[in-house]
Amino acid sequence: MECSRGCSSSNTDACRSTMICLADPYGCSCTTSYGGLHCASDCSNGMYGPGCSQTCHCSNGCNKATGECNSGDPLCQTGWNGPQCNIPDSCPDGFYGELCNYNCHCKNNAACNQTTGKCSNAECASGWIDVDVTDCQQDGNAKIRLVYSTKVNPGEPSSIICVVSGNPVIKASDVALSDESGLEFPLTSYLIDQKYLFVGNFSSIIVDHGMSFTCNVSGGVSLQLNNISFYALPRLDQLKAPQIEVEATQVTVTWQRWTVEDDIGDGPVESYKVYYKQYDSDNWNFHRSVAIQDSDQVTYNSVITALDWSTTYYFTVTVKRTGPRGEGSKDTFTSATTLCDVPSEAPGITSSSSTHPNEIEIEIEVPSPPSIKCNHDDTNGYIENFSAKYRRSYSEDSFMEKSGSGGSTSFLVIDGLEPYTEYEIIVSFHNKDEQSPWSVPLITRTAEGVPPKPRNVMLKPRYFTVEVQWAIPQPTNGVINRYEISHWEADEPIRTRKVDIVKANLKDVNMFLITGLKYDVMYTVEVKAATGAGLGPPSDAASVRTATAIPGMLGSLNVKEVTTGSVTLMWTDPVIFSGDIIGYGISYRAIDSVFTETKMDSGAVLVGTMKTYELGNLHPGTLYEILVNASTSVGFGEPRTLLTGTTFEVDISKALPVNEDLSKPISQSDTLVLVRLPAFTPDARISMDSELLDFIVVVEYDESLGTRRRRDTETSMLKGYNTSGESYISALFAICNVPSTFNIGSGGLYGGYYNAPLERGRRYNIYYGLATSYTGEVVCYLDEQPSLSFLGNVLPADVC
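^ that's the sequence the OP posted. Answer follows.
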């Protein structure tokens, strides 16, 4: 339709012959003010509106287009009111509404309220219902108004409700329910609601996502239910996935309570369920259910035991709402790996060695992988590191610890040890999380090391020596096998060391005497100790000065000459010098004499540095004890002692008178001669008790022709028998014990002298005399003429 003309008051003919059509149910009609077959006729008086279909009830007529009353009083005809006088004062029977333009559909044509249309008998006529409104204006033919299900958890039994409206109300047998496969379900119960609603209940139907149901009513009316109402099963949000605290064979699962605000799904929640599974398993293991007993509880936990060590597990906590199928999904989970367990076996120490005095290397052997109880980094039997504890063996010391890298077999070096020391060592290993038991102890020793310096070096000077004392090094670092003692003159610009090697002993304090030193010289001494590892550092240097001390004993002391009143001495310096000799001291005392009147006196004298001295004013025939010692600035040393004596004069012819009987042998054989010995004539001055004077028999070979002569023998030359000598002493007797006769040549010993057998045909001279030996040699006193002369086995001529 082309609208080329507008309808307005200024152009009243613009809409003549025009029909306006609206969609059903309204249909077509002429525009306002016109009617007739072609909509070209003006409305007659008393009519207005589209197609002239409205009646004008105004007293003075109305506008044919709008129905607006023309002015006048009263405005409306009797029975009408309103601005356009189109509202009747009352509706005729069977009608209601403001314009009385609605039909009443009351049962048995009962009247209805002219304003609301509500039937006075509260029942609608057949074919009409008042379910949604107060009047009976709704279609009353059978109609499925609603199909719905009770809200349940997926997979639980639900009730599907079919609500069918109609007047008359449909029968129960006319209502059916089927699923998408055509399976029909029996009606469980029904009720009639609001007189015209049939509410059918199909209960105990298992429903789940994706299912659909159709409600069917006889006569081909049906309605499908596609959106079944389910509760969203609850689940913890991934941000609230359970926290896992792992141990070797158990874990503690901790989670926060489910809340509507933070998590997923519908409540109310009644419990939680804990599950776990190994990472490569498809099946979850149920652990336990935790009921919600305190609505204020925020945190929950559960301990899962009997797990495998070093194994990755998945853990989840499901949330269960009310209803048998109210448990939510396991989509929120956490993975965790259990720790390594405590190893069941200890490692072993297969060997140990020490090539350095401060280190011990041990070889550690670990048990089989199953007993290590650890899988890590794709290693079955993983070992993180080894640990060794060590301390001195058989001590109460605290253990020290050393760690090393892991492996199936490992060498571990323990350093920082003391040399040549026994240690007790035990080992253990750590897998990723736990430590093994400790091994059986191993007792082993570090290698020898060079010893430290000897301690407490002390020096004691002794004349030309220094005694060195020192304490053994501590610790010894091995077996001390020797010491080296170095010494040098401290004042020398270039150190010329002399080293003495001393075999070690096991004493705590050692001593060595350094000899051959100079006196009054400063010496420096160092001591080193040695083990099998070598020589250690020197001790702290110690210095000492050799002192000037009293000298040692004279090297020798001899008699140079004796007289009746003096002894001339000679001597040599002390063997051990300990200072400069400044003089000598001589002391003497008489200890015996051949003379009775001799006074046993003593004396002393100091002499200079001479080494001979004549000690005079002595008594004749007297034995003296003489002591001579040297002196330094410190004092006199130990004396050397000498026993010697003075000589004396005696007239032998008077002391030992020989008469005629004594000058002849008593008897004679081939090798011996029996003679008479003269009796000693005592001199009042000579002591017969003196042990200094002896009687001697002297034998002399006489090569003359039998004439007596003066003796050739020097008294100082007389000795014991000698085959090459011309004279000898054959016997010695104490002066107080001289026999009356004597066999010369008997072959015996007399006073220590050999009485040699005589030789046949040889001439002999016999002398009797006195002898002393206290001067250091035998001094004989003989007469000038022999007392007896004879030829072996032949009497002398004058005897014959």
